[in-house]
Amino acid sequence: MNFLLVFSPILVNCNRYKITHSNYDSIKRLIPKPYKIGLYDEIIKNPDFLCSFKVNENEYGKEIKIIELNNIDLEIGNNLFPEIFCECNDIKRLLLTSLALTKLPNQFEKLQELEELNLSDNEFKEFPQVIFSLLKLKILYLDFNKFDMIPPEIIRLNNLEALSIGYCYNLININPNLYKLKNLKELNLSSNRLLFENNDFISCSVYSDNHYSTENENNNYTDFASYKSLKKVIIRNNNLSMFLKFFCNFINLEGLNISGNLFEEVPHELQSFSNLKILDISYSHIKNLIIKNGMFNNLLVLNLYSCGITELSISDNALQNLETLDLEYNNLSKLDRNIFQLKRLKNLSIYENIFTEIEKFPCEKDDPIKLCLILKDISVLPNIFYFNGINKLIVTCKERNNNEIDIFEYVPTNLKTKYLDLSDCFLINIPHNISKLINLETFKVAFNRIIILENVFVGMTSLKSLDLSFNRITNIDRSIFDIATLEILDLSSNRIELLPSNINNMRNRNLQINLCSNPLQAEIDINSFNSRLISIEQVNENILRNIIYDRTGAFRFPEDINL
């Protein structure tokens, strides 16, 4: 989860240019004074010079992104940033990623209008000092570089709002002056494991000069400006088993990503963040998730993806405002009131948990959610309908169940479900009481074992789409074409040879029928003639316009995946 500020400008003009040793006219258009003596010496003197870049101009100003660069310093073997770009002093955003840069020229300080700088994935072994002269800089990306410390001069960047220094594997030291930046709102320290090894990564040195305050010179780290200004922090993938007390100072945090660490429980220190709205603890080692009363009552998003959770306990008065809960790829086997009772929940992800039990929990939700379930078998499903708060339900089963199961036994009078997908559930028929689902608009039962298509949809006045593809259907109920609201009937990849003759009397002329990949007969065998069945060639021409089928006659049964 990336918390860093992102501009979404409306592009007014976007052009791509290429500079070479012999052709550098394009850069002249971007320079206020393009005819200064010696301005292009760096290009002219390097026969291998190549620079491909894009220029975007929008309502926020000018953005330059260098895409490809060949300006090798023969002494160090790395690319040099072309000094000519320092003459483009109206740049707002400069993107210099993956260019093998090791340093920036002194002329870089001319870019005084720069507000965003991305130097990620380069070869900087020292923090580029010239950056500290860019006093309007708001966003700085330095991920995937090789420097080992954030120097004290960082305090000069008074307007800095977002700093990303993740995946700097040599980083061992951050000067405290970083936390004096009163406008700093977002900080990314992901995958800096050396930095967190000693549980205390703040250097004792404090930068000072005649122009900048030196509060906390006695190493009193209790009142840094950023303690109040920081809103979002990312410290994922740092092998942390305990939450560092230092981060508890960021009392106004709204977003925190501590995923990919070694936590075995939700750190109790997180309760101190009363303003927290987004919390990501994914890829942890939490087996038993316990969230007690009063915890995270302002939280809107909780991500617990792939933590190995086997048991879930959420107290009645916890997570009262939660809207998004991600529990995908865990080891949960029971779906119960712990989740159903979250009244404000809008987005629930619990896929890749194989449920063997669903608790009976009668409850109606005003704002229905989408739910994707993997069940041991179809016998687990019926209890889900006690919870009348699902508008879209997608179910797959891992095993077949040969018992007679009344899937819709507990459907309430006014179930809110509009979309139901029971594909890959080993079904051999559709239960007759599906007609209880009076609000159902889309029903999918593809990749099952249904042989006879019965019209069990009588009284369903909202049904628009019916998908029975990839089954074993040979017979179709004559009245299936009389469902007045039906718009799509997908019968592709079945075993249909002949059609009910009353298809020619079909009143629903809006119905689109897919009969592709069926062994449709072009003619009827006189010896087995049945007046109630007709071939595809006998279908009325006006009806045939609404049918998709294989016209070549070249057909083979699809491989049966339901064995």
Detailed description of the structure:
InterPro entries: Leu-rich_rpt (IPR001611), Leu-rich_rpt_typical-subtyp (IPR003591), LRR_dom_sf (IPR032675), LRR_domain-containing (IPR050216), LRR_R13L4/SHOC2-like (IPR055414). This is Leucine rich repeat protein. Residues 91-192 form the Disease resistance R13L4/SHOC-2-like LRR domain. The protein has a domain at 446-563: Leucine-rich repeat, LRR (right-handed beta-alpha superhelix) (Alpha-Beta Horseshoe), CATH 3.80.10.10. It is 4% helix and 23% strand. It has six helices and 33 strands. It has helices spanning 25-28, 41-44, 193-196, 226-229, 337-340, 541-544; strands at residues 11-20, 50-58, 61-70, 91-95, 116-118, 139-141, 149-150, 162-164, 173-174, 186-188, 232-234, 255-257, 278-280, 288-291, 301-303, 311-314, 324-326, 334-335, 347-349, 354-355, 357-358, 363-375, 387-397, 419-421, 442-444, 452-453, 465-467, 475-476, 488-490, 499-500, 512-514, 533-534, 547-548. Strand 2 and strand 3 form a beta hairpin. The longest helix has 4 residues, at 25-28. The chain is flat.
List keywords for this structure.
563 residues, mainly beta, 14-stranded mixed sheet, single chain, Leucine-rich repeat, LRR (right-handed beta-alpha superhelix), LRR_domain-containing
Q: What is this entry, summarized?
A:
This protein is mainly beta.
